[in-house]
Amino acid sequence: MTARVVDTPHGPARAVLHCAAEGRAALLLGHGAGGGIEAPDLVAATRAAVEAGVHVALVEQPYRVAGRRAPAPAKQLDAAWLAVAEDLGAGLFDTLPLVFGGRSSGARVACRTASEGQAVAVLCLAFPLHPVGKPEKSRLPELDAVDVATLVVQGERDPFGVPGGAPHREVVLQEGDHGLKADVEGLQRSVGEWLSRVLRPLEV
């Protein structure tokens, strides 16, 4: 495990790297709004990816690197994320397909930037479909805008809502809530199987 500091338009971001023995692709994972890259679901997804032969970069947004807990505005998050993706895609992960992903707020960033960042797939852990208690303020358009293979792993009792499936989108429901802590082994298995499946056509 190594870390790389990347300059972005909104301050330094940090990418903590977990490399597979022979990388077939690279997965960039973002954290939630108030949490860090040590969240159990991110750890499980990282383990699954490395076992599937996929390099992982756990991306810490500039506001977290600077020691702030309050998240930056969406446009700043997206710009910083794309700067990290460009840096890694032109360097360490050159020639490799990039998969974007994250938990909660990080999943939203991955969805919003997938097209511009040329991601081949998107992994959403605990996508916050709407603010708690406000289903009328749906963020489904962010998910629907993604036109590549997408996996959403969601807790059955997530107070932020549960999205449905779609032509490009698979939804795996697990026991538990927004934290996705109840079945990390199941999450790891689902992520590993999905990554192997969506990356296989790219290797022909």
TrEMBL record:
Q: Which Gene3D superfamilies match?
A: alpha/beta hydrolase
The record lists the membrane-crossing segments as none
What positions does the domain KANL3/Tex30 alpha/beta hydrolase-like occupy? 24-163
Any Pfam family: Abhydrolase_11
Question: Could you identify this protein by its name?
Answer: KANL3/Tex30 alpha/beta hydrolase-like domain-containing protein
Source organism of this protein record? Actinosynnema mirum (strain ATCC 29888 / DSM 43827 / JCM 3225 / NBRC 14064 / NCIMB 13271 / NRRL B-12336 / IMRU 3971 / 101)
